[in-house]
Write a structure and sequence with these properties.
Radius of gyration: 25 Å
Structural class: alpha/beta
Distance between the termini: 46 Å
Largest sheet: 6 strands, mixed
Strand order of the largest sheet: 5-10-12-13-14-11
CATH architecture of the largest domain: 3-Layer(aba) Sandwich
Order of helices and strands: HEEHEHEHHEEHEEHEEHEEHEHEHHE
Number of helices: 12
CATH topology of the largest domain: Udp-n-acetylmuramoylalanyl-d-glutamate--2,6- Diaminopimelate Ligase, Chain: A, domain 1
Strand content: 25-35%
Shape: globular
Helix content: 25-40%
Number of strands: 15
Number of domains: 3
Length: about 375
């Protein structure tokens, strides 16, 4: 598998279009045409992680945090970022980032954390799904309608939730007149007004696949000038968002909940709330989700689990009686990599989870 195909697979699993506008995801450094020898999964690109990749025979490193986050104007190898990028290029290692798209995607990092905590009735805490759908409507002669529909579906259009090959088809009459000496119409003759029995085929597609779908449609359509509409929609993709909220199967104390979090190998830095407080409704956000405390409060969470909580958010939570469990980034966000490693292995790739993450914060 080439790096470009691996990136396409990751895009299907955790669509890059779900990333926040300020984020940087996908192939950050590397050669899209190179053959993948192995994939190393880690939280950050570090010198240890690059050494691990080289020693393991992995020429792709997939991290949660992008090695290039904001626009840069220079690369200095004596500095950390420039040195990491230079080392990766010398080693022929491609660097891929799955950041807020992994947080938001159905089956991504936040859903993995919910599964690990056995939460039920899970839904997004923050409606961050962007307007990322198009409706494509195309007018086709009835004799070629089926061929064009099949091309649209093959291109990836027509998926609605857990259903595929979805379309709406309306019969009607199309009119056209080609200019003499300039056209070669599929039906009729240039200079004459023609009427054709056509179908209007409508399908939904993700914005990022629009080019591929339109190309497939044009390739299957018999007309030399194809009439079609590509319309942006306000629809949100169900199940996506930067955080989650759900319920425990049975209520438990805050102390018991915090212990379960620790038993998962997640480092708990602090707990706010009475140990005997009963917990039923749980909100969580991978990474630094302090800014979503108000969302957790407004939706009635008994406890909010995230990393890097800000002091004023903790005060607001305490005032409203919501408990907080603060963790570190590394142990919280590493939880998804074994799941992704299994997926990549099922596609015939060698995949390994790096154990060289920077476990920076520990109580003395």
């Amino acid at each position: 598998m080439k790096v470009s195909k691996l990136v396409d697979l990751l895009d299907q699993l955790y669509p890059f279009a779900l990333a926040e506008e300020w984020d940087n995801v996908g192939l950050i450094v590397g050669d899209s045409k190179a053959e993948v020898t192995g994939v190393l999964l880690a939280l950050d690109v570090t010198r240890d992680v690059l050494a691990d990749a080289k020693a393991s025979g992995c020429n792709v490193v997939v991290t949660h945090h992008p090695v290039i986050f904001r626009a840069i104007k220079r690369l200095n190898e004596s500095e950390l970022q420039g040195g990491l990028i230079a080392q990766a290029m010398r080693d022929g290692t491609s660097l891929v980032a799955l950041h807020t798209n992994l947080d938001s995607a159905v089956g991504g990092l936040n859903d993995t954390l919910c599964d690990a905590l056995a939460l039920v009735n899970v839904k997004p805490l923050v409606d961050s799904g962007r307007e990322r759908f198009y409706k494509l409507a195309v007018f086709v002669p009835e004799t070629h309608a089926e061929k064009v529909r099949e091309a649209l579906f093959a291109g990836g259009a027509g998926n609605v939730g857990n259903y595929n090959q979805c379309s709406f088809n309306t019969p009607g009459t199309g009119t056209f007149r080609g200019q003499e000496g300039k056209t070669n119409p599929f039906l009729g003759k240039p200079g004459q007004l023609e009427r054709a029995q056509e179908q209007k085929i409508e399908v939904i597609l993700r914005r990022e696949m629009a080019g591929r779908v339109v190309s497939a449609m044009l390739g299957a359509h018999p007309y030399e000038e194809v009439a079609y509409d590509l319309i942006p929609l306000h629809n949100k993709e169900a199940g996506t968002g930067l955080a989650r909220i759900g319920r425990l199967a049975a209520p438990e104390t805050l102390a018991a909940f915090a212990k379960r979090v620790q038993d998962l190998g997640i480092f708990v830095k602090a707990v706010l709330g009475a140990p005997d407080k009963m917990i039923s409704k749980v909100a969580l956000c991978s990474g630094a989700g302090s800014d979503f405390c108000s969302n957790a409060l407004s939706q009635g969470a008994d406890v909010y689990l995230t990393a890097e909580l800000k002091h004023h958010h903790a005060l607001a939570a305490f005032d409203k009686g919501m408990a907080l469990v603060e963790t570190d980034h590394y142990t919280l966000e590493q939880k998804h990599w074994p799941k992704l490693a299994d997926i990549l292995t099922s596609h015939g790739l060698k995949a390994k989870v790096s154990d060289r993450g920077p476990e920076l914060w520990r109580r003395p």
